[in-house]
Amino acid sequence: MSYKLYYFDGRGRGEIIRLVFAAAGVDFEDIRFDLEEWESKYRAISPTGLCPYLVDPVTGKTLVQSGAIARLLAARFGLAASDDQEFYRVERILHQLTDIENLAIDILFGPEEKRPAFKKEFLETKAPYHFGILAGYLREASDSKFAAAGKSLTLADLALINLIDFMEFIGPEAQELAAGFAEFAAHRKHALESNKKLADYLANRKPGALPF
Ligand SMILES: N[C@@H](CCC(=O)N[C@@H](CS)C(=O)NCC(=O)O)C(=O)O
């Protein structure tokens, strides 16, 4: 039996799990669906009524919560921190990224009339603030070149790349803003050079049907 990941045909909250599989070189069934199939077929078999969820062949259980699944797999596949200080730095980055994701969710899925204001605030103040903090963490990690300043690639690297890539769905201004931080491009280059399977996955990734 193989891993089976259930998520929309988009990146959203499923992509970080796909990136962990890609970086680890572990095969999984990538079961993708549209909104209609979600409602008619897949929601009912999700333990929480939400996705992503993962059928784990190791335990036979169906796992939920994207962050918990990604952390579990990272630990299982050697993509977790190797000591308590690195653990803190990985978590610091993951939580900073969650703060940004929450803002992106408001822009894409918040009340329609409020979305332009959310986006304006994101571009003018919130994204520069959060990106600046993340760029500072990368500068601190300069000797290591991995985001959490450890000896090898961790979930923090994957999540950072994923979030910067996600700016595509916010729009060209958000992508430009991220591109203004040279630390992100340098980090991505190093991370991909350290892991060819991840680089191949990103180079060959096809766009999903859903715009998130
Ligand atoms: N904290 C959860 C959030 C899960 C979540 O809200 N999933 C959304 C998609 S990103 C969902 O299932 N939406 C479908 C629905 O609400 O019917 C996680 O990270 O897995």
Fill in the keyword field for this structure.
single chain; 212 residues; alpha+beta; Glutaredoxin; Glutathione S-transferase Yfyf (Class Pi), Chain A, domain 2; 2 domains; 4-stranded mixed sheet; 9 helices; globular; binds glutathione
Describe the SSE topology.
Elements: E1 3-8, H1 15-24, E2 28-33, H2 35-42, E3 53-55, E4 62-64, H3 66-76, H4 84-109, H5 115-140, H6 155-170, H7 172-179, H8 182-194, H9 196-204
Parallel strand pairs: 1-2
Antiparallel strand pairs: 1-3, 3-4
Helix pairs in contact: 1-3, 1-6, 1-9, 4-5, 4-6, 5-7, 6-7, 6-8, 8-9
Q: How would you concisely characterize the structure shown here?
A:
The chain is of the alpha+beta class and 212 residues long.
Count the beta strands: 4
Helical element count?
Answer: 9
SSE topology string = EHEHEEHHHHHHH
Q: What is the CATH class designation of the largest domain? A: Mainly Alpha
Distance between the termini: 29 Å
How would you characterize the overall build of this protein?
Residues 83-210 form the GST C-terminal domain. Homodimer. The chain is α+β, with helices and mostly antiparallel strands and 212 residues long. The chain has 2 domains: 3-78 and 199-204, 3-Layer(aba) Sandwich (Glutaredoxin); 84-195, Glutathione S-transferase Yfyf (Class Pi), Chain A, domain 2. It has 9 helices and 4 strands. It has a 4-stranded mixed β-sheet. The longest helix is centred in the middle third of the chain and has 26 residues, at 84-109. Glutathione binds next to helix 3.
